[in-house]
């Protein structure tokens, strides 16, 4: 068995010798012919033109003295056979190439047209944006013992931030040690393609800027996303053993905090509490101006914001507190010494607030 590149050739005798020789590859037909003819010469005792000794022998092996008496007639005979082998007998590959079936006609190879040049700038056509109904997905975390129990559990809806994933927020919440709840976290509906490609992991957002929607449609895309999050909440209440006698607790981070406040204004009667951490704000859908229209009784609200937040200014957190106060809410406001991500102190405060609602 001889290895020939990535292909294994199983053969013996003459074919094995010329196929396994390193000269083959530059021109398979010629090299096969050359090595087959050289085998004939080796059997005659002739020297190879590219070796130091007899064809088929090593350079250090003894060679035949072609000037010795009595060898010339035999050498001449085999030289003639050697020449006839080159001139008359074509290699198998050559014979296969020259054989043509009856009625064969030569057809010129088609000339392939060049593909269109790659267009790097979107200049052809005009984009229009309309409402689309499609499938989305959310992640679920069930409490320990869920399968072996008939108990119904409180439901918590987590909303991740701009460019984040559900896994990020679920992992964070699992570290808080609240296990006696069903937790769901929807994946925001729009993919941020540059961030997804650059980080090699999903980056999602709840605002249609990611698909190039104009600013005039930003408010509509926000409301559509908030409505879909409400559908996720209702789907989880139907699918899992959720305590439907109580509302859902919504916890949002960053953009998710803004959308948690949006749900507070859209479906307040279905909520048991709303918490926002480092919530952003979108003037095109002024959620703060809608707080006043939330009917009584109102769910409790928890607001936390870092005083050194480099992404969403601490002033935004203050504006949420002020708008809620003006609308008649009594929010728990927790400024913390930190940036955009919550500190352990805020996690403890949020844990306490959630437990006070679900117990």
Quick one: how many beta strands? 11
CATH architecture of the largest domain: 3-Layer(aba) Sandwich
What is the typical, i.e. mean, pLDDT?
78
CATH topology of the largest domain: Rossmann fold
Oligomer: single chain
Task: Give the number of helices.
Answer: 10
**Termini, distance in Å?**
76 Å
The proportion of residues in beta strands is: 5-15%
Give, in spatial order, the strands making up the sheet with the most strands: 3-5-4-8-9-10-11
CATH first level of the largest domain: which class? Alpha Beta
Q: Quick one: CATH superfamily of the largest domain?
A: Alpha/Beta hydrolase fold, catalytic domain
Biggest β-sheet description: 7 strands, mixed
Low-confidence residue ranges: 1-69
- Secondary structure class reads alpha/beta
Helicity level, as a percent range?
25-40%
Along the chain, the helix and strand elements come as EEHHHHEEHEEHEHEHEEHEH
Instruction: Give Rg in angstroms.
Output: 40 Å
User: Any idea how many domains?
Assistant: 2
Summarize this, please?
With 359 residues, the protein is an alpha/beta fold.
